[in-house]
Fold each of these.
Amino acid sequence: MDDARNTGAAPATRRGALFVGVGVAAALAGAGYAWMRSRQSGPVATPASGTGTAPGTDHAAADADQAGAQQFWAQEYETPQGTKLAMASFKGKPLILNFWATWCAPCIEEMPQLDAFYKQNSAKGWQLVGLAIDQPSSVRKFLDKTAVSYPIALAGFGGTELTKALGDAAGGLPFSVLFDKDGKVRQRRIGRLSEADLQAWSGLA
């Protein structure tokens, strides 16, 4: 009797293992599909609350914008030169915040354009900060060869949480945020900024 019961239990165990295996495979397939979808997604520009959001979502979007902005303005980061840079020091004038990394090809490709915009518009009150989501040593080594005129701050990989708080749910790079002179989020873009984007943003803040 014991042998019969044990013999019957073995196929059941194998069936259970098979079901678990199928479940794991399905989960992995789903994750792979989601990864492929994210790889296929292009740059996305999204307005902040009050600048084109759908009816009925303004209050929720405004709350999220305010929370993300407050988190950002409270931050202080080290610069590649070793000094401290308080984000609150940029309040009072329009600011483009650009999240980037040395390993992100589109981030590197847009830097000369961002630098040109900063040089052309800083005298008009425009500010630009590059917040590096990267190892400090990698950033310093990169900037030794490719200097930019706008300030760079070191957020480290923990800075990804700030990108999410500001509307980049996937934490993708590059990611840019436009703040107006009052410190409010006006526009965001996931992906490389174009010259047309910068021209359009310059009229919003």
Note: Residues 38 and 192 are 15 Å apart (CA to CA).
Amino acid sequence: MKKLQITQQMVREGVVAVLRGETPEEVVEMAKQSIAGGIKVIEVTMTVPFALRAIEQLAKEYSSSAPADSDKYAIIGVGTALDPETARAAILSGAEFVVGPSLNPATVTLCNRYRIPVLPGCMTIQEIQHALELGVDIVKLFPGNLFSPAMIKAVKGPLPQANIMPTGGVSLSNLGEWIKAGAVAVGIGSDLTSEAVKTGDYSLVAKKAAQYIEAYKAAKA
């Protein structure tokens, strides 16, 4: 049931913060600010040096089982998981979902074994169909900036059962278009954190996160 619950929570929240940084401490601060701003789904990418430290620290402080209105409520996951070894290490560190840049069948099998939601990156109908056959519940359309929201309608012609989350290139200006086109959620990357990194003021992450949540709610309404 936990896999189903996490998947439903991710869809309900609708916005995933995809966090990259130079240190685990920096990413933890980004995550805290994102959560404070209203983005409750946090993806710590494995490109972060010692990323598992950040996942472990965040998993100890936040929980998907906490009340949704609690300041301790968040869903912590791992991104850029290239293989099942990485996925398993992240799961043992507390990751509750796994995201990859591409479709790696062995990673999907590993996540299914431990009942962990897995969101592989796909670009083609063939890859999306393969992901569905492997038991994937949500497919990450990546890189999203290579497509327009019309891609979702095109995919859902032959594959209406596919749940799609675009990541890469999603911004405040086009988030609404993606949601209205049928995206079940969106992944937000550098646009969320770039200004904060440039200025050193990480409170800007919380402000940008709040803007994304506002845009998401407006699109859903």
Note: The two ends are 29 Å apart (CA to CA).
